[in-house]
Write a structure and sequence with these properties.
The protein is mainly alpha-helical. It has helices at 9-40, 49-61, 64-67, 70-90, 97-103.
Length: 104
């Protein structure tokens, strides 16, 4: 069957769920890191959260290079980067309280 005849809905759904699950995991980790810093203070030698998170994730994700080819990892990174950009471009956070002023 030619690829243009295949419905991409299931693949997009699977990708969407994977992005959502990833965001959930990252949110929990980042929240914990910030909560720990707020409760215990930040040591002067401590790395910023983004740098520490990058190292943690890189260590955890390194085995993927043994299980999948470099091309697969590069494609996954590209897809996630493009998806993140699309989400940022297409979805907007709206402060709904601003609409209350219009009703007055």
């Amino acid at each position: 069957m030619p690829s243009h005849e295949i419905d991409p809905t299931a693949a997009v759904d699977a990708f969407t769920l994977a992005v959502m699950a990833s965001c959930g995991q990252l949110s929990l980790i980042i929240s914990h890191m910030h909560q720990f810093a707020a409760e215990h203070g930040v040591h002067e030698d401590a790395e910023p959260v983004p740098a520490a998170l990058h190292k943690l994730l890189r260590d955890v994700l390194t085995p993927l290079a043994e299980e999948h080819g470099i091309d697969d990892l590069a494609t996954a990174a590209q897809m996630l980067e493009v998806a993140t950009q699309l989400i940022g471009d297409e979805l907007f956070v709206v402060d709904l309280s601003r609409f209350d002023d219009l009703d007055a």
